[in-house]
Amino acid sequence: MTLRVAAGIMILWGSVQGGTPEAGGYPALFRPVVQGLSSFSAVQQDVSQAQDSLSDIDVTSPYYRYPGKAMMMSLAVPGAGQLYVGRPMRTVAFLGAEIIALLAWSNYARQGEDMTLSFRDFADDHWDFNRWLDTTQYQIDPWGRGEGRIYIGLGGSHHLEFFVDDMDDDGRPEFFGNTKDDSKRLDQLLADPDTSDYVNVKRSSEYYENIGKYNQFFSGWDDADPNNPDIEERESGLVALSEHRSQYLRKRADANRLKSMAGYAISAIMFNHVVSAVDAIFATSRWNSEHARRLSGRLWFSPASPHGVGGMQISLTW
């Protein structure tokens, strides 16, 4: 809304004296006009300078919005800063994007966890430690022993971790050292058909990755034929496959893909927060420009005035 108040000031020098001419041949009534025209350039310059001094003056408005506050609001909850500055449609857009991204993350993360449990259960059913152990060389790791247990590391470019729980004849924990005799004793224990009674495999994420990813663990699959495996050439090299190992690799790939999608959704959420915060700053600037009170003044040029000023217009916008 704009309110304009105009004040006209016209100063006329002299008076009309019954049409009697004054010196110079001009009536007193018209003498200021002639004087004004003769000094037109100088007067116009003075008025222009006066107008510049009355250029827009910002006045703080009760509707003023703080850019920093709007930014922090949108950074916390996308669209909140836009609502603060009266941009409801932008609020709907940013908040809608946030909800969609959150739902996508929740859905993909849940499916990824379900698929992870699925491929782990599949591995537990079809990959056997004892079956694999029959074709694998192993060695003792003397630095991993604990009370009643000894940590075993198997040789190779990759390894599995497991503990051996065994009691001697007196019912006390049996310890193994890095000696020839202890190595033979360990050979006997691991060769026992009932090894599962006292060998505990550490089923970590690395364990589930290794048994499917690397050929050295191929013989542990229940449908594997180490002497006549199916060989497939992939980017990583030659891969020994069986039907169960192939199914396991597909399940792992699906789980990783779902988890990657969940990660992309998290990135979209973060991006939405940042974009909303930046947009809130510009939206606040536009709001303040539209709602701030503004006082401006304008001088009227008049050649009939000895000072070139015939009046003033004042505008108040809010």
Explain how this protein is built.
The protein is an alpha+beta fold. The chain has a domain at 2-61 and 292-317. 47% of the residues lie in helices and 16% in strands. The chain has helices at residues 31-38, 40-53, 67-76, 80-84, 88-126, 129-133, 180-191, 205-213, 243-291; strands spanning 2-8, 57-59, 139-140, 151-153, 161-164, 199-201, 230-234, 237-241, 293-301, 309-317. The strands form 3 sheets. Strands 1-10-9-2 form a 4-stranded antiparallel β-sheet. It has a 4-stranded antiparallel β-sheet with strand order 3-4-5-6, with no helix packed on it. Strand 4 and strand 5 form a beta hairpin. The longest helix has 49 residues, at 243-291. The radius of gyration is 45 Å and the shape is rod-shaped. Residues 4-24, 29-34, 36-40, 50-59 and 138-153 have low confidence and may be disordered.
Features:
four-stranded antiparallel sheet, 9 helices, alpha+beta, 10 strands
Précis, in short:
By secondary structure, this protein is an alpha+beta fold. The protein has helices at residues 31-38, 40-53, 67-76, 80-84, 88-126, 129-133, 180-191, 205-213, 243-291; strands at 2-8, 57-59, 139-140, 151-153, 161-164, 199-201, 230-234, 237-241, 293-301, 309-317.
N to C succession of SSEs: EHHEHHHHEEEHEHEEHEE
Beta content comes to 15-25%
The spatial strand order of the largest sheet comes to 1-10-9-2
The pLDDT mean sits at 72
Strand-pairing-aware structural class:
alpha+beta
How many strands in all? Answer: 10
Rg from C-alpha positions? 45 Å
Largest sheet: 4 strands, antiparallel
What share of the residues lie within helices? 40-55%
Give the CA-based shape. Answer: rod-shaped
Report the uncertain regions: 4-24, 29-34, 36-40, 50-59, 138-153
Distance between the termini: 5 Å
Q: Note the total helix count.
A: 9
